[in-house]
Write a structure and sequence with these properties.
Elements (H helix, E strand, L loop, with lengths): L1 H14 L6 E2 L2 E2 L7 H58 L22 E9 L16 E11 L4 E6 L5 E3 L5 E3 L2 H19 L5 E6 L3 H7 L3 E5 L3 E3 L4 E3 L2 E5 L1 H9 L10 H21 L3 H11 L3 E3 L3 H11 L8 E5 L2 E6 L2 E6 L1 H12 L6 H5 L2 H11 L4 E5 L6 H11 L4 E6 L9 E4 L5 H11 L3 E4 L10 E5 L7
Parallel strand pairs: 3-8, 5-14, 17-18, 17-21, 19-20
Antiparallel strand pairs: 1-2, 3-4, 4-5, 6-7, 8-13, 9-12, 10-11, 15-16, 19-21
Helix pairs in contact: 4-5, 5-6, 7-8
Length: 481
Amino acid sequence: MANYSSNRGEKNNTSRRYKYTETDSGRENPNGSSDNAQTYSRRIAKTGYTEKRKKNTRRKKIIITVSAVVLALILAAAAAAFAYVSSINSKLHSGLDDSQLDTVLVDQTAAGDPFYVLLLGVDTSVERSSGDEYSGDTGRSDTIILARIDPGAKQVTLVSIHRDTQVNLGEYGDQKINAAYSYGGPELLIKTVSELAGVDIAHYVEVDFDGFGTVVDRLGGIEVDVPVSFYDNYLGGGLDAGLQTLNGDQALILCRSRHAFDDLGDGDVYRARHQRLFITALADKLLSSDATTLASSISGIADCISTDMEIADIISLAQSMRGMDTSECIYSAMCPTGGVYTEGVWYEFVDEAAWKTMMDRVDAGLSPVEEAATTTTSETSATTADSAGYSLIVHNGAGIGGAAASAASILESAGYTVSEVGDADASDYSETLIIYADTSKASIADDIAAKLGVGTTMVNDGTYSFSGDILIVIGGDWESR
């Protein structure tokens, strides 16, 4: 124990044996450096700290400057984006700023639920002076389409309403439906269509055909399968049948032309059909675009449309509809009417029973016409192939308002081509007749009778004179089918 303490003390004494050396500069410290050296070291340390602090200060200034620049760029980008969106929304709302659309439009239902949109085409250009007594300075509301959009089911139904359809406009009395736009603007037209169809309308879109061609060109054209070749002398142009990419001028000819079909039947019916066909092709192109391309496309389209919707709503709706099979999930039909020429004016009168049946189906998300809905894909393809080369003529021989148009709509939805719709030589036919030109068309006549749910088929023995392959004369049994 003692030895241990002695050794420890000796060790401590040895560790404390410092060497002090006198020098001219002063006394060295125990480590052998002078006081001046220690002072110099402190000076160096202080200088290093000062330099480090300066560097940190400069680094902080750089960070703050960069952050400020980044923030400014972000704010500038946000402001630019806001200005861009605001500019598009301003275009979209152009012409509707002073309207009272909120008094006639209903709030859109929950996201994903179906809703109705009224599509109106206003033509202020070449055909404006062709005799519409209600055009005034507002242009002609020649295109009226009620669209049901179901984002949840990715389904769209387009129902055209004949511009000459007679409706009651309240203080303006019984008028053609396209007079509503001239008398009371979009508000009166929305109210009128809503009451006619028995549905609430959530949104409104107005297309001005003046700028329509330019928009189509901006989109790089639209691919459309034109169903029939035609040439319209009034428009100075025409199209060949078949799948093709239409430029702006060609698209306008397709969507405007009606006089080219005067020899075949009601030109407005053909024009409405082509407009629905074009809308389907346009939807197909837009829905296949990415969000950036879609926004750019909407920006271009905004030059010729007016709507209550915002660009964000349109993009959101388009995104929710992506993946929709436009060949299967876009239904198309026309309000069933029959034409009557009275007191120098041509009116179309709605077939109330057929119209209610159609709208009940549309509102339920079904095909507008039952026959088209119950026909399988293979049956539809076969029927279309078998009937593609035939020309059908449908005449109203019972005096039932809209009967011929309703029958034509059924047949067209089943894949047939109706070349003429009109009145028969008399209105006292008791039964519907399906008259075919020769025996080779007997099977087609039988299929037509099945599609219509009524009709007696017969080969023409020379009694009936018609230019098509099959003549359908609607009789009194149409009401009880």
